[in-house]
Amino acid sequence: MPHPHPHPLAAAPHAPVPSASTAPSGKLDAPRSAAFYDVDGTLVSVNIVHTYAYYVANHPSLRRRAFGFATMLASIPAYLAADFYSRKFFNEWFYKNYAGFTEDRLWVIGEEIFENVIKPSLFPGAVDLIRRSREAGVKQVLVTGSLDFVTRPLARFLGADDYGANRLEIVNGVATGRLVGTLLAGANKSAWVRQYATEHGLDLQQCWAYADSASDLPMLSIVGRPCAVNPDLQLRAAARDYQWPVLDLKD
Amino acid sequence: MTPFDAPRRASAASLRNCVVYQDTSSPKRVFHFGEDFREEELPVGTRVVLPPPPLDGLNNVPAAIRHALNHPEGCDPLFAMLKPGMKLTIALDDISVPLPKMVLPDVRQTMLEIVLQLVADHGVDDIHIIVALAVHRRMTEAELRRMVGDRIYNQYAPNRLYNHDAEDPDGMTELGVTDQGEVVEINRRAAESDLVIYLNINLVPMDGGHKSVAVGLCGYRSLTAHHTPEAIRKSDSYMDPKRSAMHESVNRMGKMVNEKVNVFTVETVLNNRMYGPALDFLAKPEEDWTALDRSKFQAAKWALHKMPRPVKRAIMHATPAPYDVIAVHAGRTDPVHEKTLDRSWQQFSVPLEGQTDVVVFGVPFVSPYNCNSILNPLLVQVMALGYFHNMYRGKPVAKKGGTLILTHPCYDEFHAGHHPSYIEFFNRLLPETRDAKKLQHKYEAEFARNPNYVQMYRRGNAYHGAHPFYMWYWGENGRQHYSRIIAVGAESPHVPERMGWEWAPDLPTAFDMARDSHGPSMSVTYMKVPPIFIADVS
């Protein structure tokens, strides 16, 4: 599957995602239209911290489990401060926790995380939103700062055509804690979307974007049909100013 | 006449002369102007049409409801239809009626309390209460509580008292297709019930009848049969169901519903007592104002002028109307509605002789589609060219090719949560075209299937994506009828311009503009509405 950005998906070892349904009714702007979805907070209520917590909780070593949890709990204030300062800085820092995890374990547990953590956390309206968008003939693409091994099963479940996600650097089958390529977050998401649209012949004016956080304002700003989903205060204010639709998928 | 009917008269209009002609000694007239009022001089000779006084209400509304349930039109009494273990759905009108909201208790609560007690006495416990809102916005918890009362809300919500969801893929079912190709699709729970009881409030003659179930509980596919520019153009007017193509279609579909579903309808008729003591001067001719009325008017005008718009809007929406119930009928849809319409015309009909060159309306703060919300530009349009233009039976008040003058600030404001698709319609579509048929064919399906608007309708409190189109179609007869439409006092001139209207800073300027078209001796009618009335033009 061709990808504009070197790291998000093309480099992922298990990239194939099921093709979206081609239901013909009510096509809007197909085939030059796509919907880009942020994931954490937009489609699901969990985030990268929950994912990591699951890995820690299921570590075979009791000592590593206890140490991992203690470290994570102790770091929460620092993580909050880092996220407040910069989502990009927080993500890069947080992903260092994965140093030493083996690649096969990441993928196997990724599927488990999807079943046990992510799937139950999907917002009730998210599946319906994506289904209707797909039925309208719009290409479905997830664009997330999460890691590829948890994004792939989610994309498969939602029937997304594609996804862009972060990928850990693997050396000799073990994660180094560093990311391959540029971190996919904040303004980088908009660059990824722009490049994706160019490569797939999409008209950005006819594209949709969904996000919950003001950190995704760049991505929302480059499409013709931006939409704030379960927005934080800053994004809600921006949506009000620009008269963007505001969705609540939680109920 | 039943013991529970109020004394009947030929019509409310017969109680006082509702038509006066402006002369040199006539007072200035009050105009609605959004959330404000204006007081304006009218040219000598202007025909001023005043609302008829409210008919007397029923003395004992609960007794009248019980009597109607026990002496229904065209079927057995309600109690005879009830049996233990049956599946019962009670549907009721949404917040779009009455306008403004009525003083508590809402008559829907009164009807519900009586019906629920009756069905409980007969061992019926599988009961769902559905707000038949079609593609209107979902009502909030506070609005539902106000409508049905806390006791019923606490007992039934959220699982057995809820808003109809026309976009629930599992919640709708198709009953069939009429011989005219109209798809009849309604709420699945209602369709699968042994009995559907519909509790209606009839404010104007376009309400009620088959529209209650066949529209209130339907989905987008059914609406495409009659919510079209074509159906509206063939409706002369849609306040006159006998001459309305829209009602013809709705009736065909409703009859199919009634063939497949056991529907027992309860219709109430309200009078036009729309203002309580603080604003009751609005329902009186200015000639009859007392010193107290004038003081109240000046105080209200001054206070509203000083308030920020959101504050005065909130106050206006929070002020309930002390309506009286003037009739209750129950039973099968057609005979019940015939009696309802008869009573409704007695309240609202005002006979008028002849048409004039110019008609003038003051547009208030509220329409059926902005309860607790903003009267955005499309809704100003639907009030002027839709509802007010169609408030006639026989002929429109103004001649074909005449001029409509409306007073409203025409601000460019929208409620993003209630009317998100209106924003796109106004800013993206109207600059391209105002042709209703072109809008329908090119864009209606796109908006109706827009996944954002579907989610905002289903999970938020937004009107359906197709709703702004209906608002535009609603104004189709007005657009076709008038040669000029002039908005007086528009603070955002681009709003009337985008509608295809002209703009004037004040009423005298608007009359000067109209004289350019109709000559110096043009004839003018000022329709002082609300309170609601309907012109019977001969």
DSSP summary, beta strand count of chain B: 20
Q: What name does CATH use for the topology of the largest domain in chain B?
A: 2-enoyl-CoA Hydratase, Chain A, domain 1
Please report the first level of CATH classification, the CATH class of chain A.
Alpha Beta
Count of separate DSSP helical elements of chain B: 21
CATH topology value of chain A: Rossmann fold
Average pLDDT figure of chain A: 83
Largest interface, chains and sizes: A-B, 26 and 20 residues
SS strand fraction of chain A: 15-25%
Separation of termini of chain A? 35 Å
Kindly report the spatial arrangement of strands forming the biggest sheet of chain B.
1-4-19-14-16-17-18
CATH architecture of chain A: 3-Layer(aba) Sandwich
- Give the DSSP E fraction of chain B (strand runs of 2 or more residues): 15-25%
Taken in chain order, the helices and strands of chain A follow as: EHHHHHEHEEEHEHEHE
Low-confidence stretches of chain B: none
Q: For the largest beta sheet of chain A, what order do the strands appear in spatially?
A: 3-2-1-6-7-8
Number of structurally distinct domains of chain A = 1
Q: Compute the number of helices of chain A.
A: 9
Assembly type: heterodimer
- SSE-based structural type of chain B: alpha/beta
Helix fraction of chain B, binned, reads: 25-40%
Give me the Rg of chain B, rounded.
23 Å
